Amino acid sequence: MTDKRTVDHLATVIEQYMIRNHLFVENCPWQIRSSPLGGFGVFAKRNIEAGDLIFRDLPVILGPRCLNVPLECCLQCFSKSDVKICEKKCGLLLCPSCDNEGKHQGECSLILSLKTDLDLVEKSTAMIKCLAPLRSLLLSEEDKEVVKNLKNHWGNQHGHEIDILTDELHFKIPKDDQNFMRFVCSVLDANAFEVIVVNKQAQTSLRGLYPLGSLANHSCFPNAFHVFDDERRMVTRASVFIEKDSEIFDSYSRVIWGTATRSMHLKKTKHFVCKCKRCLDPTEFGTYMSSILCKNCRGNLIPTNPLKSCAWKCEDCNEIVPLKDVARVFSLIGSVLKCFDDGDFELMDSFLKGKLATLVPKFSQVVVEIKYKIIWILGYQEKYSWKDMSTELLELKREYCEDLLKLLKKLNMGQCKMRGLLLYEVFQCLEEILQRKNNNDEKLPIY
């Protein structure tokens, strides 16, 4: 369905979608063009300053991920308050305010028209896993055209939800609708974004298909970033200055992962090998995130080819180390990390400052991930609340935040979302420290 796309047709389809959803802005800074990476991409029509809004987008499909995890929230507003199975027994969970809402009535009628005599209340978890592709059948013809124009990945793993509907739930679905839903599953696999909905202390992980957002190609040092607002709209901004006619890149992976981890994640989830400047640089812009320390001289061991299974070489003494020896070190580190519970701050910090420091550089992915975990333990777990933490721990948290901010700067991440989160944590640390000094009548330092 996607091999007949042209730039002009795709641009028209996306523009009309934005207009229908009141998202289109006259003189917008973006434009859809053919990308040198292949396919299409989003490009800057004019110079865009760091922090500037590029676009807002709305999901054409939003629903649960196909996971073997019970989802106990309203399937319309995703609230966790007073949810119960729909009284008409379609198998979907709803809150009281959404029970009679128009969107659910359409879904409910569709499900009841397709089901046989199987009790869907007992099969609620299976039903919920299939909700995203089912919702595609209720799209308008215009919105179906949007989906048909997005990139898709065909594979044996796609369409598992349709097999659940027909084989496990015994739905009687017309063949054309089955084929369309299988196509939708392949589009979701290629393009869907994870959307986190926060309810008090709990989080719900959804998948959303954002048409314009999905057209932005990937880079491991992107020039744009996205967040989701309270209405689950995607808000995309420039993280650095973007020159006119430059392609606008987002990241499909975690920026604090090293090349090997990012590459494996992208192959598994997006089915491509990234060859951006960061991936091709064995030092990852001088951060050495994927490196280990040489046993001979304590220099940095780096892969001779970061995108292939190959020997590693020390930058200082030129020692060649077989890949299996490097893998053994990472396996050892991984086995230790698996022993930590989420709240094991003391053990994590002890390992970080002890054995780990003898194995990997200071910006290693493992070091970064442990520091990032510690940052969200201190101040947010009951044992380490802001008021209960010692000043030494506040200073430690601040130090780790500043370490990661230095890393983001070396990676050319600009004004990315993680930078904003870390800066806020630094601010909270400083505020608490200064308040304590003020309460103790100490002279305040000048910052």
TrEMBL record:
Boundaries of every SET domain copy: 28-253
Residues that span the membrane, as ranges: none
Name of the protein this chain belongs to: SET domain-containing protein
One Pfam family recorded for the sequence: SET
GO molecular function, one term: protein methyltransferase activity
